[in-house]
Amino acid sequence: MRLLVLSPNPMIRAGTSALLARGGLPQPVEELDAPELVSAALRRAAVDVAVVDIRQERPGVNGYCVARLITDTTAGATKVVLLSHEQQDIDVAAALRSGASGVVPHHSAADSLVAALHSVHHGGLYLDPLALSAVFTAPAAAPAPAQAPLTRREDEVLHLAGQGRSNREIAAALVVSEGTVKSHVHRIMGKLGSETRAQLVAYCYEHGLVRPSAAPTAPGCPAYADQRP
């Protein structure tokens, strides 16, 4: 796994490298202290996962901007895990919409970052439990109208997708084929203007469609293994 770490804080960079070593992961191929260095770093080396500090010491620049830059530059080939400092820093919907595949607060359990890196490297989506708690303590936005009304079945599929369930799990829950679920997901994404499965999950978080009781409860919540529609 080829890793890039971006943080203006040298302690964060050093701590991240130490956690990687403890977790049996290789040291970063790039350690950067400023977002303007990212593009050149991505040209120098192929990076599998970028660990990006949400806080950047540049006016108007944060980790969400950098995540969008990385995913756009690499056409999604480089996955992004965002590190947050405080619970109030965490905007899961913004993280997902920026293209990030994982969110881990600095004060999470030490193995959360390693778990997140493994999950996103294998195509998953990782939301630390502390990140999820920030979602559920924030006020939900008013439901936004879809470009076209969702059918009852599409609404069921949307709620299950928002819980992080894969197409296979949704198919089992609704007793339909995976192909049928995939078709529903494609139509839902078109109606809601979502380009990726992660953006679909973000929509559910933003509009209060996912409740704490429906959130994944496995340790670390490495729940969303299937992001493809």
TrEMBL record:
<feature type="domain" description="Response regulatory">
    <location>
        <begin position="2"/>
        <end position="121"/>
    </location>
</feature>
<dbReference type="Pfam" id="PF00196">
    <property type="entry name" value="GerE"/>
</dbReference>
<feature type="modified residue" description="4-aspartylphosphate">
    <location>
        <position position="53"/>
    </location>
</feature>
<keyword id="KW-0804">Transcription</keyword>
<dbReference type="InterPro" id="IPR011006">
    <property type="entry name" value="CheY-like_superfamily"/>
</dbReference>
<feature type="domain" description="HTH luxR-type">
    <location>
        <begin position="143"/>
        <end position="208"/>
    </location>
</feature>
<dbReference type="InterPro" id="IPR001789">
    <property type="entry name" value="Sig_transdc_resp-reg_receiver"/>
</dbReference>
<dbReference type="InterPro" id="IPR000792">
    <property type="entry name" value="Tscrpt_reg_LuxR_C"/>
</dbReference>
<keyword id="KW-0805">Transcription regulation</keyword>
<dbReference type="InterPro" id="IPR039420">
    <property type="entry name" value="WalR-like"/>
</dbReference>
<dbReference type="InterPro" id="IPR016032">
    <property type="entry name" value="Sig_transdc_resp-reg_C-effctor"/>
</dbReference>
<keyword id="KW-0238">DNA-binding</keyword>
<keyword id="KW-0597">Phosphoprotein</keyword>
<protein>
    <submittedName>
        <fullName>Response regulator transcription factor</fullName>
    </submittedName>
</protein>
<dbReference type="Pfam" id="PF00072">
    <property type="entry name" value="Response_reg"/>
</dbReference>
